[in-house]
Structures are given as C-alpha cells and as structure tokens.
Automatic annotation (TrEMBL):
Annotated Pfam families: XdhC_C, XdhC_CoxI
Phylogenetic classification of the source organism: Bacteria, Pseudomonadati, Myxococcota, Polyangia, Polyangiales
Domain of life where this protein originates: Bacteria
Limits of the XdhC- CoxI domain: 15-80, 124-185
Name of the protein in its database record: Xanthine and CO dehydrogenase maturation factor, XdhC/CoxF family
C-alpha cells in the first residue's frame, strides 16, 4: 500500500509539472514471478521509476521499453520473460525467476486523467474496494480494444469507456462477482472467446485500530505506517492519547468508557488490536467490538487474562471473520516492544492474506493456473 501511495504522489507531481508518464500494470503472469496482477510501475520522463512490477531484469526492460511502446499511441500488452526455452527473448541471463509477466503499458499525457489511478486514489480515500475490468486481448477491435475498461468504484458507481452496452453489462457483472469473492481473476468473454479480461480487485489500505496509547503502541504505529496502513490510536486516558505522542498515526482519539467506539468509523474488514493494559477498558472494548465484521481482532496479554475478562463480561460472540486472537501475535520468541509489534503485525498480515504464518520452506507451492489467451 505504501508503494501505491508513492505512485499516486508521483503522478500528482507529474500532472502539476505538465509531464507525461507511462503506467505499466501487471495484468497476467505465467510460471514463477515475484509480483501478481495489479502490481504497477510509473515511468517518469527523466527515466525514474516509482513502484515495482518484478525484480531485476524485467523491471529494467519495462523502463527501457515503456516509452518506445507508448509512442505507438494506444495501450499495449507486452510480455516480459526470464525464460530462455520458450522461443521468447530472455531479458537477462542469470535471472532468479522463471516466468512471464504480461504488462499493460499506457501513456498518460500531460494533465490527462487516468481512470485506474483515479480508482486507486478513491479506494484509498474511502477505505473501500473497487474493481478494474480491463480488456487485455481482443480479436475484435470493433467490440473493444486493449486497454478499454469498466470500473466499479468504492461508491458502487459503474463507469468506463466500453461502448457496447452488452459488453459493459457483462464486465460490470464480472466486477461485482470479483467484489463478492474478494479476489482478482482473468477470464475470456465473447461469443467466440474473442476477449480476454483482467478483473482486478483494488483493495483499500489496511485500516488498523490500536486501542491503547502506552509506549508499547509506538512501534506498532511506526511499523504499520511503514507498511502503508491507515492507523488510528484510541485510549480513554487523555494524557496519553495525544497527537504529539503519535505523530505518525492518521488519527488519535480519546474514547469514552460508556461508549468506547463513539466518534470512530471502523470499516468492514478492519483490524483491531486491544492493548490498553486496563481491565476496565479492555472489557468495555471487547463488548463493543464483538459484533463488528472485522477481519482481525486481537488482545495483548496472556490468554488467562482474556478468559477472565470474557467470563466477567458474560456470553459474547465475535463477528470477526477470524475469531478472537488471544494472545495476539505469532510465536516469534518476542520480548521487546518492537519485537512484540512485529509479531502482532505479522499475524494480522497473515490473517488478512488467509495464511497461517508458517515457514515458506515448509509450504507446498501450487502450480499457477493460467487462463488461455483469447487473442495474441
């Protein structure tokens, strides 16, 4: 998410300076690649790049070819590969991955709006997801061209530059399915499969609410902001919940014990960690947070303490999709506040990604399923 913010900032700066740029977006991958569809690289006129679409040779090739392809005037999908045995040019010898990345290259003229960058900004601002449905291959340019798209914004408004009403409806329906299942995908459309479409789920930044304003909260906020998350800090102790204590936080809030969530807007799918070190505050917060549709809810401290708080609060059912995490964090052998912050945020990230936090060497890596291209 921090990378996305850097791209948006660079785009804004280029627009204000009257500069044109090239936006490279990963729309499909085959084999082993470092980045997934949705990764972006903004190439500036002076050769600087913001963002990342791979590592090493592919990224260098994208930067080198971006302006060459962009001068052709229309969006193009270009394949960059590290393979040497498939008939395509190998971008560099000794590359440390073995896959092909399909990149959509779009030239953005000086002062011109860009639909996908505008959607990224809107999803960030409203803290809700959206979908980009982009044509990445077309055998019938009269129906749609490469780069044409339909957009479902975080406000559920459908827009785009696809002229065919039936196709626009089909793309909007596919985008709704993408939102429902919370995943991106690539598929073929058309009566003769003449169109290949990338449905990209554009997620908002992770919203983290830290309840507690002690010194041990500071590394949690610092590390979360390094990840590009939106972070709110809240505590009933006004002398602790101060902006000057948490200058990196997006919001610092003094909560009420009677209505602990009053004045807070916690979006669906947010992550919350309770670490006030106050039994009264923790008890009130758990009661208030229990019915919310969170992605993660954790409590700092030993399990027996949380069990006691819950027994004192009476029957309670947690609506969090992953239940209650107590004690919060992965087992990293932590001791210092910084290490504890790392353990907590690592567990939150694993939970949001539907992973269990195991060692990568112990994980079975599934083969990537690649959709057949509708047109070359």
């Amino acid at each position: 998410m921090k990378e996305r913010q850097a791209i948006l900032a660079a785009w804004k700066e280029a627009r204000e300076a009257g500069q044109e740029v090239v936006l490279a977006t990963v729309v499909k991958v085959e084999g082993s690649t470092y980045r997934k569809p949705g990764a972006r690289l903004l190439v500036l006129p002076d050769g600087r790049c913001v963002g990342s679409v791979s590592r090493g040779c592919i990224e260098d090739e994208v930067a080198r070819q971006a302006w060459i392809e962009a001068r052709k005037g229309t969006p193009r999908v270009v394949r960059f590969t590290t393979r040497s045995d498939d008939g395509e040019e190998e971008c560099a010898k000794g590359a440390d991955s073995d896959g092909t990345v399909h990149m959509l290259l779009e030239r953005i003229d000086a002062g011109e709006d860009n639909a996908q960058l505008a959607l990224l900004a809107a999803c960030h601002e409203h803290r809700r997801p959206g979908v980009l449905a982009t044509i990445i291959a077309s055998a019938d340019s009269s129906l749609a061209r490469v780069g044409d798209r339909v957009i479902v914004g975080p406000d559920a408004i459908v827009s785009g530059n696809v002229g065919d009403s039936n196709l626009k409806r089909a793309l909007a329906e596919g985008a709704s399915t993408c939102l429902l299942h919370r995943r991106s995908e690539t598929c073929v459309l058309g009566s003769s499969n003449e169109l290949e479409v990338s449905f990209e789920l554009v997620k908002p930044p992770t919203s983290l609410f830290v309840f507690g304003a002690g010194n041990d909260v500071m590394p949690v906020v610092s590390l979360a902001k390094e990840l590009g998350w939106l972070v709110s800090v809240a505590d009933a102790r006004a002398e602790c919940a101060k902006v000057e204590r948490f200058p990196l936080a997006d919001d610092v809030h003094v909560l009420s014990m009677d209505k602990p969530l009053a004045g807070l807007s916690i979006p669906v799918g947010a992550a919350c960690i309770v670490m006030t070190h106050s039994a009264d505050q923790d008890r009130a917060l758990l009661r208030a947070l229990a019915p919310l549709p969170l992605a993660y809810l954790g409590v700092l401290g030993p399990r027996r303490r949380t069990d006691r708080l819950l027994s004192e609060s009476g029957p309670m059912t947690f609506a969090s999709s992953s239940g209650l995490h107590s004690p919060a964090g992965l087992d990293l052998g932590t001791d210092t506040p910084e290490e504890i912050a790392l353990a907590i945020l690592a567990e939150i990230q694993a939970t949001l990604s539907d992973r269990d936090g195991r060692r990568l060497r112990d994980r079975t890596h599934p083969r990537v399923r690649v959709a057949e291209s509708a047109a070359e």
